[in-house]
Hints:
The chain is of the alpha/beta class. It is built from 13 helices and twelve strands.
Amino acid sequence: xxxxxxxxxxxxxxxxxxxxxxxxxxxxxxxxxxxxxxxxxxxxxxxxxxxxxxxxxxxxxxxxxxxxxxxxxxxxxxxxxxxxxxxxxxxxxxxxxxxxxxxxxxxxxxxxxxxxxxxxxxxxxxxxxxxxxxxxxxxxxxxxxxxxxxxxxxxxxxxxxxxxxxxxxxxxxxxxxxxxxxxxxxxxxxxxxxxxxxxxxxxxxxxxxxxxxxxxxxxxxxxxxxxxxxxxxxxxxxxxxxxxxxxxxxxxxxxxxxxxxxxxxxxxxxxxxxxxxxxxxxxxxxxxxxxxxxxxxxxxxxxxxxxxxxxxxxxxxxxxxxxxxxxxxxxxxxxxxxxxxxxxxxxxxxxxxxxxxxxxxxxxxxxxxxxxxxxxxxxxxxxxxxxxxxxxxx
Length: 394
């Protein structure tokens, strides 16, 4: 039987994650590999959250939950967003979703008709283009430049905006670790208002800001009615497997997104929502506990990288990743990552896995314990120095 073109063309022939898949095969075959690849915390969901989940499930909250989300969790998310942004927000502005990924799909379904163009920034999180295509739109990448620290430039976006109805941004950014500046976001907001774009803002790393401050574009003048914000419990509370996220947006958009959820996901389990509500009400102390390892490892990385001159660190302002410029080695990001895996059993992500703009870079996830992280990064630097010397760049 023939499958639809729609489902068979969500991604290309290769998604650029060959190094990751190869590392996983090596582990499966019994080899010891240090994985600095994906954004999975090396600590698991806090036991207090699991206890709240257990109490809720044993208490009977295991049947169908309200499709929009429980009133109490929606109220909690709304209060959190309002406190962080200053924008009046109620439960009517909130839809609870099965993780941030479902929220990304729903947001693009709300913003785009079939055949419309959805813009997104390159480098990008791996699922972005496929998510836009899944919503029936054409995915169009807008390049950023390493020389600009991967800050988007509104002029470059506008040059490629023909046919577009939405723009997806992500700050703090995965994969670069860059936090978009106030000027960048102001310029993007102005562009969206001039072009009447929906701005879809992926803010799942909003609790992981190491330099500067996080600005939600929904808080900028005139943007609350054309911004859809994606949030999640995954990164802020190490609840990746619980699949609990949300969309925050205008009431009318949320009403229609609830209708979409009724015909697709049919909501999120009640005991998961109750655990998420408990976690959010635990306040910043719990969030700080989750982010503390990344603050330490960022400091470790800055110290190690300051002692060499081959690898350049893209400003590591937020999220759990380091983007490293390894062009001085003479290798592409993909070639470097494969050679590092073969030689030292250390797995990192090639910059090319995230689009064209990060070619010649690698992404390092700060997701192993401190001593192992420091040792692996030191080996990586020595490996890069050797390659640079051979290529004559050092």
